[in-house]
Amino acid sequence: MMRKLSVVPLTVILAASLVACGGGSGGSPSTSPTSNPTAAKQAITHVYETFFSSPIPQAKQLLEDGPSLSAAFTIANRLKGNATESAKVKSVTLTGPTTADVKYELDTNGSPVLPSADGKAVYINGKWLVAKATFCGLVGLAQPGKPVQGC
Asked: Which spans in the chain are helix H?
């Protein structure tokens, strides 16, 4: 999921990279890559950048199977504390009609904590979403060897 973690302690990285206390704008445009790859990449960028800065109820709507991941969101929110996080998408590569690879930077309080993170996006029911595997991989870092409910 991620290539390199940086020297920041794992809990700080995890806390900074998981959803939470910011504002955010509405949902994602629904554009299939088969109809318009440029618009699909823009939609994926919007979803990623919105997901990491949204309150939990909105973030759940931007995540594959988000409503079923309450336990993972609880872990993420507890670790995040009062940090403000954001994501900057560096590139999107469409890998199929309903999947994409995403390279992004995760920042906390305006400073990069994961400058080169790898993620996935999926196209489900007419919308691009952050892939469950991306979020679960980040949350799983906080509990090595222990399953995260819903993941």
From this structure: 10-17, 37-51, 56-61, 70-80, 132-140
Q: Which is it for strands 111-124 and 127-130: parallel, antiparallel or unpaired?
A: antiparallel
Three-state DSSP at 103 gives strand
Q: In terms of Cα–Cα distance, which of 21, 25, 28 is closest to 47?
A: 28
The Cα 80–Cα 87 span in angstroms is: 15
Domains of the chain: 10-140 (3.10.450)
Q: Tokens standing for 7?
A: 């020297």
The predicted model scores a pTM of 0.79
Per-residue pLDDT tens for 54-96? 999 999 999 999 999 999 999 888 877 788 889 999 999 999 9
